[in-house]
Amino acid sequence: MFQEIDPSFLKERDGNKSWFRDAENNCELFIWKNNVHQIVRFQFWHEDYLVEWNIETGFKSGRLDPEVGAFRSYQSPSFRYHHHFESDLISKMEKLLISHDSQEVLPDALHFVHTIILNQL
Questions:
Q1: Nearest 5 degrees, angle CA 76-CA 62-CA 74?
Q2: Which among 48, 87, 59, 89 has a CA at the least distance from the CA of 97?
Q3: Higher pLDDT, 77 or 99
Q4: What is the pLDDT of residues 30-62, one digit of tens each?
Q5: Phi, psi of 116 (to 5 degrees)
Q6: Is pLDDT above 70 for 76?
Q7: CA-based max dimension of the chain
């Protein structure tokens, strides 16, 4: 179940970013809003994979790459966007959101993300 994380844990504390976490399914969702509270960007992480949406550029996908660099044993993994959007990630993330949507009333922000993802399918 997605839980909203206390904003004091965010690096950016401008009030325009929200963080939701589903520890059971290893998912995190970050949502950015503009000054009129319209969602303009989100990042949906599931394990090492990312689906990102931006109101201006649309969808991108990516993955953490733990095998990069000469100092792999103690270096943080780096992140790489895919050259081509991985559309199968959308259906995985949609399934994670729909399971929540049927169990509870999603906050408006999560419902918006679910709608954007559904429109991409």
A1: 10
A2: 89
A3: 99
A4: 888 899 988 899 888 888 888 888 999 888 888
A5: -60, -45
A6: no
A7: 47
Mean pLDDT score across all residues of the chain: 76
CA-to-CA distance for 49 and 38, rounded, in angstroms?
25
Token pair of 59, please?
A: 């969808």
Token pair belonging to 24: 């059971």
Q: How far is CA 69 from the centre of its chain?
A: 25
For the record, the structure tokens of 90 come out as 């959308």
List of residues 6+ apart from 114 with CB closer than 8 A: 94, 97, 98, 101, 106
One DSSP character per residue, 33-85 reads E-TTS-EEEEEEEETTEEEEEETTTEEEEEEEETT-STTTTTSPPEEEE-SS-
